[in-house]
Request: fold
Amino acid sequence: MKLKAPESVFSSASFCPGCGHGLAGRLIGEVAEELGIEHKLVTVVDVACCSFHIDYWKFDTIMAAHGRDIPTAVGVKHVRPDSAVMAYMGDGAAYAIGMAETIHAALRNDNICVFVINNSVFGMTGGQMAPTSLPGERTATSPKGKDPARYGTMSGLELVKQMDVAYVARGELIGSSGMVRAKTLIRKAFTHQLNGDGFSLVELLSPCPTNLNLPPVKAKAFVHDEMTKYFPLGEFVDKGGNV
Amino acid sequence: MSKIRLEITRCKGCGYCVEECPRGALRFSGHISDKGYDTVMVDESLCVACGSCYRVCPDRVFEILE
Ligand code: SF4
Ligand code: SF4
Ligand code: SF4
Reply:
C-alpha cells in the first residue's frame, strides 16, 4: 500500500521525540486531504504545545487565547459557515482552563469539531498535575503521586457525552491499529460537521514522554496500559450512527 | 524498486517504528544526527511494505512506495 505523508502537514520539528502531537497533526492532514476539505479548513489551536502546529500545517490557522479555541472556532463557523472549522487543544485547555467553553459549545451543539490531545499533564508549562492525571501519577506538582483522596481524575468528555451533540469518541495515538482507529474517529467528526449535525469531540490519548519522564516507548505503554483504564476507548455518541 | 524511503533527517529516535515493525526490519543505526538523535535504518530485504512504521512515526520519516 502506497503511503505518503500529507502535503498539508510539512513539519513536526519542535515537538519532543515521541510526542503525540506529530501523530495527531498528520492524521488531521490525511483526513482533510481525503475528504477534499484542506482548502476550506480553518483550524484554531491553543497556545500550549499544540500551538506549534500553526507553523506546521498549511491550513488557515488561528492561535486562540489559552483555553479559548472553542469559542474562537465557533465564531469562525458563524461568519464562514461553508468552512470546515476545528478547535485543537490539549486536555489542559479543553478540560481545565477552558472547561466552561467546552461545556457550553456542547450544550449549544455548535457545528464544529474539537480534537483534544489528552496526555494526562499540563505539557508546555512543565508537566504539572492536571484533572486528567491518574491517581498516583507523579508529576512536577505531585512528586509523591497524585493523591486520589485529595484530587479527582476526570476527562471533560464524560460530561460532553451526556449532551445532545453529534459525535463523541476517544481513541489513542498508539500503535498501528490505534492510529488507524484514531483516523476513523477524526474522519467521522468531520463528516458530522459537513452534514450539519453539530458538535463533535474526539479525545486522543497521547504520549508526552518529556513530562512523564519516560523514554517514548515507555510513555506509549503508559498511555495504552494505564490511561485507558481511566479513559476507556470507544465511540459514545454518534448521531444517526450505531452507538 | 525500493519499497520504502526514509527522510532520516526528521528522525528523533523515539523508537516507535522499531517496536512496531512486524518483520524486525528497523533498528537504530548508531548514527547520531545533527540534532543529536540516534536515527533508525531499514533492512529492505526484510521489509514487506506493511506501512506500520509510516503510521506510528510522529515525524513523517517514512514513505511506502508500493
Ligand atoms: S512537552 Fe509533551 S506535549 Fe509538549 S511537545 Fe513535548 S512531549 Fe509533546
Ligand atoms: S513497512 Fe512494515 S515491514 Fe517495512 S519497515 Fe515499515 S513496519 Fe517494517
Ligand atoms: S518512529 Fe520516526 S522518529 Fe521515531 S525512531 Fe522511527 S523513524 Fe525515528
User: Anything to note?
Assistant: Chain A touches chain B through 27 residues (CB under 8 Å). The radius of gyration of chain A is 17 Å. Chain A has one domain: 21-238. Chain A is about 35% helix and 20% strand.
